[in-house]
Amino acid sequence: MKPVATPYKAITCFCPAGRGQRVLEELRNEMGINCAFVHHARGIGVGNVQEKKLFYIEREIITVLVPAHDEEPVIGVVL
Questions:
Q1: 23, 30, 62, 65: which one has the fewest Cβ atoms less than 10 Å from its Cβ?
Q2: Please, how many CA atoms are within 13 Å of residue 19, restricted to the half-sphere of its CB?
Q3: How many CB atoms lie within 10 A of CB 36?
């Protein structure tokens, strides 16, 4: 007999730098989710094309893998 696979969802969220670790700890402590990770990203954008003003921004990208039936509560924590 073949084992039944549980459907999973991947949730990805872009948030301000410095928030990712706190969200991961909250997911682990309150919901028991251990399948999540954070990436740090930074980049340059053009805020005003006519004046060529550059802006620098840093973000953290949180990715969480959860069973499909637990998606809604996890989105509430991540956001």
A1: 30
A2: 15
A3: 19
Per-residue pLDDT 10s for the chain (79 aa) are 677 777 888 999 998 898 989 988 998 998 888 889 999 998 887 766 667 777 788 999 999 998 888 888 888 877 7
d(C-alpha 73, C-alpha 17), whole Å? 23
Q: Which pLDDT score, from 0 to 100, does residue 68 have? A: 85
3-state SS class at 12: strand
- DSSP bridge pairs for 36: 64
Using alpha carbons, select from 61, 60, 64 the residue that is nearest to residue 10.
Answer: 64
* Edge-to-edge order in the sheet of strand 36-48: 8-16, 53-67, 36-48
Cα four-point dihedral sign 48, 61, 27, 29 = negative
pLDDT value at residue 6 = 76
Residue 77 carries which DSSP code? H
